[in-house]
């Protein structure tokens, strides 16, 4: 594109992804931004150093490479500013530390990403923050849980592993009536399928490790805030010395260019597999928000523009004592599906789900939960692989 400013406001998502985040003519016409490695940045004189009269001051405060990624994410999120952090968990913990202090009360959704719960139950509690978990389907009823010292409400939709949907607009409206900050882990949907700030959320959190990267080779996170909450987020990140590396930023920016195309494939393939699983006698339930049978489907249909490639299913097992054996047999028999954590890459993954940390939405009693990440492989091949897994489970 000759002029980044000429990108039409109504441009399609893939057109935007191809052009946001870097103006080639700001750097000699090169299509991709330079990877600027930096710690020290030189000043021309003492006055410039004292008054900080130049854009870049030190490596932790940004480089042209990290700025390019932040600008792209702001364009996708509609945010006032974005920070880059070394991991998805850091993308949760930094805003929590930015907006919570000793004596505060925080409401955390019970279907939250497990390492988030670990951070809350250890670091935040040790710092004197009161943590309370709430039902993901509480909606506007969350107002009954808000106390005089409640400062933050954390959401995640769909919920980790069991995919519960949340009524984000209702929760945000109730929280804002009491002056609470609303944060959301939006890693599953990405800004392409859901823009949290458009639905009342103040701070949007992503593990860019997942779909923005897309190739299972980077660990990184991002946090994007609206205008009211951006200054405090930025100040906290700078005070803590938290930043993303230029190499990872370049790779994430590169991944963004194809994210729309990849997500379209992930979505179609995952829905095809979910529908196929729903028709099997050896599957008790399929936990996928885009299925009409799923309890939170109407909220997903109302608010979201699409579904990514991650969902779960409950394997039908008659005896609770055989849950683990059946699940392990199925998973160990898979060959195309890798057995590994994370998701969002090109390869399919499958993992047994541990819900022992839940306090409200506890583990189902009709069978073990297995989470699938549907990659870019052909659906027919993935079905054959799962068929082998079901056969192995039936033999146990």
UniProtKB/TrEMBL annotation:
<dbReference type="Pfam" id="PF01053">
    <property type="entry name" value="Cys_Met_Meta_PP"/>
</dbReference>
<dbReference type="GO" id="GO:0019346">
    <property type="term" value="P:transsulfuration"/>
</dbReference>
<feature type="modified residue" description="N6-(pyridoxal phosphate)lysine">
    <location>
        <position position="210"/>
    </location>
</feature>
<keyword id="KW-0663">Pyridoxal phosphate</keyword>
<dbReference type="InterPro" id="IPR015422">
    <property type="entry name" value="PyrdxlP-dep_Trfase_small"/>
</dbReference>
<keyword id="KW-0456">Lyase</keyword>
<protein>
    <submittedName>
        <fullName>Cystathionine beta-lyase</fullName>
        <ecNumber>4.4.1.8</ecNumber>
    </submittedName>
</protein>
<dbReference type="InterPro" id="IPR015424">
    <property type="entry name" value="PyrdxlP-dep_Trfase"/>
</dbReference>
<dbReference type="GO" id="GO:0047804">
    <property type="term" value="F:cysteine-S-conjugate beta-lyase activity"/>
</dbReference>
<comment type="similarity">
    <text>Belongs to the trans-sulfuration enzymes family.</text>
</comment>
<dbReference type="InterPro" id="IPR000277">
    <property type="entry name" value="Cys/Met-Metab_PyrdxlP-dep_enz"/>
</dbReference>
<dbReference type="InterPro" id="IPR015421">
    <property type="entry name" value="PyrdxlP-dep_Trfase_major"/>
</dbReference>
<dbReference type="GO" id="GO:0019450">
    <property type="term" value="P:L-cysteine catabolic process to pyruvate"/>
</dbReference>
<dbReference type="GO" id="GO:0030170">
    <property type="term" value="F:pyridoxal phosphate binding"/>
</dbReference>
<dbReference type="InterPro" id="IPR006233">
    <property type="entry name" value="Cys_b_lyase_bac"/>
</dbReference>
């Amino acid at each position: 594109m000759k002029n980044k400013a000429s990108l039409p406001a109504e441009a399609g998502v893939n057109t935007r992804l191809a052009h946001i985040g870097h103006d080639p003519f700001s750097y000699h016409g090169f299509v991709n931004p330079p990877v600027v490695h930096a710690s020290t940045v030189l000043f021309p004189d003492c006055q410039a150093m004292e008054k900080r009269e130049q854009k870049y001051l030190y490596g932790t405060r940004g480089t042209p490479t990290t700025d390019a990624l932040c600008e792209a994410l702001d364009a996708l999120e509609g945010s006032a500013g974005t920070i880059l952090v070394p991991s998805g968990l850091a993308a949760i913990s930094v805003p929590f530390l930015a907006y919570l202090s000793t004596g505060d009360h925080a409401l955390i959704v019970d279907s939250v990403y497990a390492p988030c719960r670990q951070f809350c139950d250890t670091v935040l509690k040790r710092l004197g923050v009161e943590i309370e978990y709430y039902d993901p389907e509480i909606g506007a009823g969350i107002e009954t849980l808000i106390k005089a010292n409640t400062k933050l409400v954390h959401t995640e939709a769909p919920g980790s592993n069991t995919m519960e949907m949340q009524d984000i607009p209702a929760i945000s409206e109730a929280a804002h009536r009491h002056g609470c900050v609303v944060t959301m882990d939006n890693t599953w949907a990405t800004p392409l399928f859901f823009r949290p700030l458009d639905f009342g959320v103040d701070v949007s959190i992503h593990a860019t490790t997942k779909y923005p990267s897309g190739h299972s080779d980077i660990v990184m996170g991002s946090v994007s805030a609206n205008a009211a909450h951006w200054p405090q987020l930025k100040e906290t990140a700078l005070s803590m010395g938290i930043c993303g590396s230029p190499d990872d930023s370049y790779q994430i920016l590169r991944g963004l260019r194809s994210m729309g195309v990849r997500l379209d494939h992930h979505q179609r393939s995952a829905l095809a597999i979910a529908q196929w699983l729903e028709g099997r006698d050896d599957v008790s339930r399929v936990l996928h928000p885009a299925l009409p049978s799923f309890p939170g489907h109407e909220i997903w249909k109302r608010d979201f523009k699409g579904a990514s490639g991650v969902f779960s299913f409950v394997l039908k097992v008659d005896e609770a004592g055989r849950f683990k054996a059946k699940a392990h047999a199925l998973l160990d028999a898979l060959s195309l599906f890798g057995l590994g954590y994370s998701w969002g890459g090109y390869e399919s993954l499958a993992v047994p789900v541990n819900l022992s940390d839940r306090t409200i939405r506890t583990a189902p009693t009709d069978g073990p939960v297995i989470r699938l990440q549907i990659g870019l492989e052909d659906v027919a091949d993935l079905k054959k692989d799962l068929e082998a897994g079901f056969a192995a489970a039936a033999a146990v």
